[in-house]
Amino acid sequence: MTWWMIGALATIVFFNRYVFLSPHINIRLPTFIERMLKYSAPCLLTAICLPIVFFEENQIRALPTNAYLYAAILCVALAYWHIKIIYNVIISLLFFYGLNFVLNAL
Fold first, then answer.
1. Residue 74 CA to chain centroid, in angstroms?
2. Distance (Å, whole) CA 60 – CA 29
3. Which has the least CB within 10 A, 1, 20, 44, 84?
């Protein structure tokens, strides 16, 4: 059942991506839908990241020692300043691991 569900979801995702992103298929979406689709990636990323940042084993992380939150704030700030994505990821990861090391050493 699980493999069938994974295959079905992969097929649906591939079909949706292919139909709307393939240059060989000429489908024009209304401008309202195109504007809405621009927000889908940030919304999905937020839905995936928020539980990781704020929860640990079904409990809220303590704010003063939450390295995930501080790294996420830094990452958003760097993205706002239009730093290239690879530099943003490297700086944010180094900050997170450094802060995590310091907080665990205390």
1. 15
2. 41
3. 1
- Please state, in angstroms and rounded to a whole number, the distance separating the CA atoms of residues 20 and 38: 13
The encoded tokens of residue 63 equal 């704010």
Can you give the residue ranges of every domain in the chain? 1-38, 39-106
87 in helix, strand or coil? helix
Structure tokens that stand for 8 in this block: 């079905």
Q: Residue 48 and residue 35: Cα distance in Å, rounded?
A: 22
pLDDT tens sequence across 14-73: 888 787 777 787 878 788 888 887 888 888 888 888 888 999 888 898 888 899 999 999
Which one, of 98, 80, 79, lies nearest residue 88 by Cα?
79
Measured CA to CA in angstroms, residue 95 lies from 24, 36, 81 at distances of: 43, 33, 17
CA 41 to CA 79: how far, in whole Å?
15
State which H helix or E strand residue 2 sits in: helix 2-21
Phi, psi (degrees; rounded to nearest 5) at 57: 50, 50
